[in-house]
């Protein structure tokens, strides 16, 4: 049996990755988050034995799989400027997280309750995989929904920052309910939103602003829109986010985060990003057809 030839150039590699994601959209964007939600809830409820419960490698692997549509979609647009911006945000993610766990700023005092993989100075190495795609998903969705209004810099940045904050309204209550991390209550009168202090969201305004401005500078907006127009799976990671964290919050009765997740789902439907293309059968790799 003749094995398929491997891609030889960057362009051939990008086309191969496009087709791999395109042929497996349902598995990546529905099957993985549904199973992830079940396994994470089962781990939190004590229904899974060690070492399966909250297995760090499984969490990181599942996250990378769900991130793959976004990573593959953005890959052809990674110029030197974009690479520098991503590197800067990676450094920022580590720095702000280290500051958070050592000083309580800007999110409030918290500690990790679940092993999320190898750490450096108490910060999970995989942190950028969790943080940067979240911001990029919000950025891409808002570009599509805003249309021509996205040309206005202030409008564009303000709406994307608000969208990133809304994503954390979904993420943090679900993560706290699972036990991924927990916030210290340093005052009896602390105002909590599903066990998340409001200081966390104030911190996210800061982080979101820095991240959104950096990505807006790093990437060519028109090139992103062209790529979005040609790549139907590019927002599938956001679909995974809605299914995974919407489901987890629903289990724990966090209904406001569920409703906010639903709003992102409505936004995805308006962009017509998640449709019958999910069920396409695999085709031959495009550079060998």
TrEMBL record:
Positions of transmembrane segments: 26-48, 54-75, 82-101, 121-146, 158-181, 201-219
Keyword Transmembrane helix set for record: yes
UniProt key word Transmembrane helix: yes
Coiled-coil zones: none
Protein name: Carotenoid biosynthesis protein
Family matches, as NCBIfam families: crt_membr_arch (TIGR03460), CruF_Halo (NF041333)
Keywords for this protein: Membrane, Transmembrane, Transmembrane helix
């Amino acid at each position: 049996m003749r094995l398929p030839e491997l891609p030889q150039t960057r362009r051939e590699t990008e086309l191969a990755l496009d087709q791999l994601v395109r042929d497996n959209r349902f598995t990546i964007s529905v099957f993985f988050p549904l199973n992830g939600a079940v396994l994470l809830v089962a781990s939190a409820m004590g229904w899974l034995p060690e070492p399966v419960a909250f297995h760090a490698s499984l969490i990181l692997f599942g996250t990378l799989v769900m991130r793959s549509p976004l990573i593959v979609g953005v890959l052809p647009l990674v110029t030197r400027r974009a690479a520098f911006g991503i590197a800067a945000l990676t450094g920022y993610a580590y720095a702000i997280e280290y500051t958070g766990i050592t000083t309580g700023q800007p999110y409030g005092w918290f500690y990790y309750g679940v092993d999320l993989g190898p750490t450096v100075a108490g910060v999970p190495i995989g942190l950028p995989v969790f943080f940067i795609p979240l911001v990029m998903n919000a950025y891409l969705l808002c570009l599509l929904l805003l249309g021509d209004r996205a040309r206005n810099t202030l409008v564009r940045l303000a709406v994307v920052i608000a969208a990133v904050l809304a994503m954390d309204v979904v993420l943090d209550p679900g993560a706290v309910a699972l036990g991924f991390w927990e916030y210290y209550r340093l005052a009896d009168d602390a105002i909590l939103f599903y066990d998340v202090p409001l200081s966390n969201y104030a911190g996210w305004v800061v982080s979101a602003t820095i991240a959104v401005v950096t990505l807006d500078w790093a990437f060519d907006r028109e090139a992103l829109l062209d790529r979005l127009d040609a790549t139907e799976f590019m927002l599938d990671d956001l679909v995974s986010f809605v299914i995974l964290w919407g489901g987890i919050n629903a289990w724990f009765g966090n209904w406001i985060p569920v409703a906010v997740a639903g709003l992102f789902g409505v936004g995805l439907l308006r962009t017509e990003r998640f449709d019958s293309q999910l069920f396409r059968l695999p085709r031959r790799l495009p550079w060998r057809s």
